[in-house]
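This section describes the prediction task in plain terms. A model, or a person checking by hand, is given the sequence of a single protein chain and must write out its three-dimensional structure as a string of tokens. No templates, partner chains or ligands are provided. The sample shown here is typical of the held-out split.
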Amino acid sequence: MADLSAGTGVPVPTIKYYLREGLLSPGRPLGRNQAEHGSAHVKRLKLVRALADYGGLSISAIRELVDHMEDPGTAKTELLSVAQKTVTPHDDERSGEHVRQAERLVADLLARRGWDDAAGHQAARTMVGVLASLLELGLDDILRALDDYADAAETAAGVDLRVLGDVTDRERAVEVVVIGTLLGDTLLAAMRRLAQAHLSVETYRTTG
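The expected answer:
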């Protein structure tokens, strides 16, 4: 275990905690208080640590992911869906006319884009909450640009799937979906701000 800790940078007490929680399988016993850990353990340990430290996921959420990853009865498509849901914010419990209007806007958008198969996704409820807030603030310009935002989202999603590639490696698939989504969102947000800064300079330079 000391070697595993040295090879991953994860403290021994943390490794023991992950073992107790079932997030990491025991190594091959070599003797009293000793076990052999291979490359699979190193990879799993790095994934669990990344999910906990950088993904901000709870131990119970990580355990659910691990259980699905190790269950051969979980289809690849279902596994990817479970992985993505762990990084999707939960919806709030608001109600009222703005929420109902936002639900209609989301339903119409999904129908227009042919995204009906994603209607039950947690992200759809998140979108309802965001749109309800925009409606409350009277930011109709953003609402009228929903299809433009959807075009950009579809392009980004296409890149995500290309990066994901072959999903026969179940652990890699979860890693790309979860970590890639979390870091990808941050990356896209940073690039969007850079583009806004650039385009605003170009726009005002032209109009000025």
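For orientation: The radius of gyration is 22 Å.
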